[in-house]
Write a sequence for this structure.
C-alpha cells in the first residue's frame, strides 16, 4: 500500500472541505448544473480522446497509485544475483525450475529465453521491444489523467460563461442574478478542484510508478544478459547496483549482509 498517496488525497480533501466549511454550510457549494457541466464535459472529452480499451486500462492503473511497488530494483538484484550463482554452479538449464516460481512475467520470459539458448542479441532485442511497449502503455494511462487535468478547468470556464450568460439574460429579474452568479463561480471551483486534487496528482504518481517499473525492467535485462554471458555473480551484483542511487546501494548491502555467501 502506498501510504503517501492515501495521506495526500485525504489531507487535500479534508483541508479543502474544512476551508469551505469556514465560509458557512457546505451545501452552499453544491450546485447540480455546475456538476453536470464540469463532470459531464470532462468525462465526455476524455471518452472522445481515447478508445474504451485505453480507458479501461487507465482506470485499472488507478490501483497502482495506491499500492506499493511490487518489484523494487533492489529485490530484483538479489534475485538475479542468486540466479547468477546457480547458473555458475549448475549451468543455465538449472534455472528452468526457477522460472515457474517467478511472479513477474517480464523476468520469467527473459530467464526462459536464456534457458532455451536464445542468441544474446535476440534476447536483448525481444526484451527491449517489450519494454518499449510497456512504456507506451504507461504513457497512455498517464495521458488519460493529463487530459482530464486539461479539460476540467476548461469546462469550469465554460460553466462560468454559461452562468454569466444566464445572469445577464435575467437582469430584469433580480432574483435570478444569484443563481446565475452561483453557477458562474462554482463551475470554476469544481474544474480547479478536479484538476488539482485528482487528475494532476494521479498523473504525477503514475509517472513516478512507471519510472520505478522501467528501472526494474532495465535491471532485469542487464542481469539476464550478464547471467547468459556467464559473468561472476559479484560482477553481476556490482553492475546492477550501478542502476541504483548510492543510498539504495547501501540499503541493499545492509539487507543482504552475508546472504550471498550463504548461497555460494
Amino acid at each position: 500500500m502506498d501510504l503517501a498517496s492515501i495521506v495526500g488525497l485525504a489531507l487535500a480533501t479534508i483541508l479543502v472541505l474544512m476551508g469551505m466549511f469556514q465560509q458557512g454550510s457546505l451545501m452552499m457549494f453544491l450546485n447540480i448544473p455546475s456538476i453536470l457541466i464540469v463532470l459531464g464535459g470532462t468525462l465526455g472529452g476524455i471518452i472522445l480522446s481515447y478508445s474504451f480499451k485505453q480507458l479501461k486500462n487507465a482506470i485499472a492503473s488507478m490501483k497502482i497509485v495506491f499500492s506499493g511497488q511490487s518489484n523494487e530494483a533492489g529485490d530484483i538484484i538479489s534475485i538475479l544475483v542468486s540466479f547468477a550463482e546457480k547458473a555458475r554452479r549448475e549451468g543455465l538449464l538449472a534455472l528452468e525450475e526457477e522460472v515457474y516460481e517467478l511472479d513477474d512475467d517480464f523476468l520469467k520470459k527473459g530467464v526462459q529465453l536464456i534457458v532455451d539458448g536464445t542468441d544474446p542479441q535476440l534476447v536483448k532485442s525481444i526484451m527491449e521491444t517489450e519494454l518499449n511497449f510497456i512504456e507506451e502503455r504507461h504513457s497512455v494511462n498517464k495521458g488519460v489523467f493529463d487530459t482530464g487535468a486539461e479539460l476540467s478547468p476548461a469546462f469550469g470556464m465554460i460553466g462560468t460563461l454559461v452562468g454569466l450568460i444566464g445572469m445577464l439574460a435575467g437582469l430584469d429579474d433580480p432574483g435570478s442574478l444569484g443563481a446565475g452568479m452561483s453557477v458562474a463561480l462554482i463551475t470554476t471551483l469544481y474544474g480547479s478542484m478536479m484538476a488539482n486534487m485528482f487528475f494532476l496528482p494521479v498523473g504525477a504518481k503514475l509517472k513516478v510508478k512507471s519510472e520505478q517499473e522501467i528501472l526494474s525492467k532495465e535491471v532485469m535485462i542487464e542481469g539476464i544478459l550478464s547471467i547468459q554471458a556467464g559473468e561472476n555473480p559479484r560482477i553481476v551484483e556490482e553492475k546492477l547496483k550501478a542502476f541504483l542511487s548510492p543510498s539504495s546501494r547501501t540499503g541493499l548491502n545492509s539487507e543482504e549482509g552475508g546472504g550471498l555467501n550463504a548461497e555460494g
Summary: Residues 40 and 155 are 9 Å apart (CA to CA). The chain has one domain: 31-263. The two ends are 34 Å apart (CA to CA). The chain is about 80% helix and 0% strand.
